[in-house]
Amino acid sequence: MKLPNKQKQWSGEQSREKTVAKNTTDAQTHGNKIHIALEAVTEEKIPSDPAKDPIEGKKNKKPASTDSKASKPILPKRGSNAEEKLAESLPETTDPTENVNDNVDYRKVESNGLYNILVQTRRCEELCSGLGLTMKDIRKLKRKYNDNDMYHSGEINQAEFFFMIKEEQRPLTQGIFRLADVAVNQKFLSFDEYLLCVVTFATFTKPELYEHVFDLYDADQSGALDESECAKMSLELQSKQFNYPANVATAIRLLEGKDGLAAFAPDDGLVDLDQFMKFARNFPVAFFPIINMQKNIRAATLGESRWSRITANKLKVHELVSYMRRHHGDVPDLSFCEITASIFSNEIFSIRKRAVEFYALEIARRRHVDAEVTED
């Protein structure tokens, strides 16, 4: 049996469709718009509404575009010009003027969640992030905090705190609570208060430790130590718990005698901060108790090596900020050693980022003060 010619059959069907369409057009009123639907044309499938069709709704839960490469932008390599242009085009996530208002009590302001739920206050969060503490550091500090909560009350008391750092409770050691504005008679320490005390004290440099002692015994906040305040400091710097009490006692006698602090004091008998720092540099052994306390705090928390690294980075940030002040905000070029180190670690870029943030905040505060003076 001979099969019909497919081409002739298709041509015949097309001619019949044209005839039907022509007859339909002639039957309509002249001037009206019409839509002709031919059976030969394939109808376009309209996607169903997921709200009306639950079956189709289940199928359409996934987004239309599943190409991960199309949804994620390709970031440029670090240090390239494209990265700088990209950074300039991105909107600012933080406003430096947010922290300008000195009237805000950041002890009561909630944190931004940089360390999840571990850090609750903005003041503590800014301290830790400004020093470059990582989430790993905060978790380790939290474990140490929980390990010394002997009664499982959720907070440690002062006795547990001093047991942890292996120090006696006396005015010199209790002065650490002033760093977190904690009263001496306050029984418990929250984790944020614990962080404020430990992190601030552990990252003190030697001059900052000496200044801390000066502020601690300047009871009247006059900016100078009188004879009674010097005598009280001399008495409390001596302790039987140290390994070399004889050396400390000798330094204390020098402090009280003509070759000690009196040699740096003027005729009025008052010792200001500059004279006190000069004495501390010449007789550092007299301040061994406070230096040993810092050593114990470091050993009981993150360890000496980690705290030394954090303190060194803190000094680098201060050096960069000082350079930016002298050069109108310009950042120095990376040295060869810094370029090499940045290949293996992000620490160099993290230090520079913190320095830029500190400098920007400083400029914002200065403009804020100038604006207030202009308004007055």
TrEMBL record:
Residues 42-58 have a biased composition (Basic and acidic residues). The keyword Repeat applies. Gene3D superfamilies: EF-hand (1.10.238.10). Residues 205-240 form the EF-hand domain. GO terms for molecular function: calcium ion binding. Residues 1-13, 21-31, 91-102 have a biased composition (Polar residues). Residues 1-102 are annotated as: Disordered. InterPro entries: EF-hand-dom_pair, EF_hand_dom. Signal peptide: none annotated. Keywords: Metal-binding, Repeat. The keyword Repeat applies. It comes from the Eukaryota. This is EF-hand domain-containing protein.
